[in-house]
Amino acid sequence: MRLLQYAVVAVLLFASATIAQTPDPAQRQAEAAAVTAEQQEEETVLAEGEGRSEVFGYCTACHNTALIRRSAFTRERWDELMDWMTEKHEMNPIEGEFRDTIVDYLARHYGPRTRGPRGGNPFLN
Ligand code: HEC
């Protein structure tokens, strides 16, 4: 009967060693989160200039900067967009100097005339 006991212990040891090598769901989730964090944007994806931190900080709460970077709006349209985002998408209203800083930044760096001679093709700019 001793032999059988040894056999049971051996099987259990083997089984626990196998389980230990399989990452548990929490660990896999943590690894996935780390990968996602690496893919997150840095402020420097936006054009350098006054107002960049404000725009990055405020505008990436709901979406990344791709929507901003692919847009080429006049100052007026950017300004309207602030209200549209508030009315349609429940963005907290931006007002006063803070709004000027943001809209000025957007119009200066993501305006129709800052697109250059290639017509704003994002793959060429
Ligand atoms: C409260 C959430 C929220 C915040 C904060 C926010 N947006 Fe948006 N924005 C949205 C949603 C939702 C859409 C629509 C997304 C879609 O169509 O996929 C959108 C769309 C846009 C678009 C595309 C508009 C178009 O017609 O192509 C631009 C540009 C944009 N946002 C810029 C900004 C800027 C600049 C800021 C910062 C001032 C900002 N967003 C802050 C929610 C937000």
Q: What would you say the CATH architecture of the largest domain is?
A: Orthogonal Bundle
State the CATH class of the largest domain.
Mainly Alpha
Per CATH, the superfamily of the largest domain is Cytochrome c-like domain
- Cα(first) to Cα(last) distance is 78 Å
Q: Which ions, cofactors or small ligands are bound in this entry?
A: heme C
Annotated CATH topology of the largest domain: Cytochrome Bc1 Complex, Chain D, domain 2
Would you list the SSEs in sequence order as H and E? Answer: HHHHHH
Structure explained in plain terms:
With 125 residues, the protein is an all-alpha fold. It folds into two domains: 2-38; 43-109, Cytochrome Bc1 Complex, Chain D, domain 2. It is 61% helix and 0% strand. The protein is built from six helices and no strands. The chain has helices spanning 2-21, 25-39, 52-59, 66-69, 75-89, 96-109. The protein is rod-shaped. Heme C binds next to helix 3, helix 4, helix 5 and helix 6. Heme C binds at residues 58-59, 61-63, 67-68, 71, 81-82, 85, 89-91, 102, 106.
Helices and strands in order, then pairings?
Layout: H1 2-21, H2 25-39, H3 52-59, H4 66-69, H5 75-89, H6 96-109
Helix pairs in contact: 5-6
This protein binds heme C.
Quick gist of this model?
The protein has 125 residues and is mainly α. It has six helices and no strands.
Which labels suit this protein?
2 domains; Cytochrome Bc1 Complex, Chain D, domain 2; 125 residues; mainly alpha; binds heme C; single chain
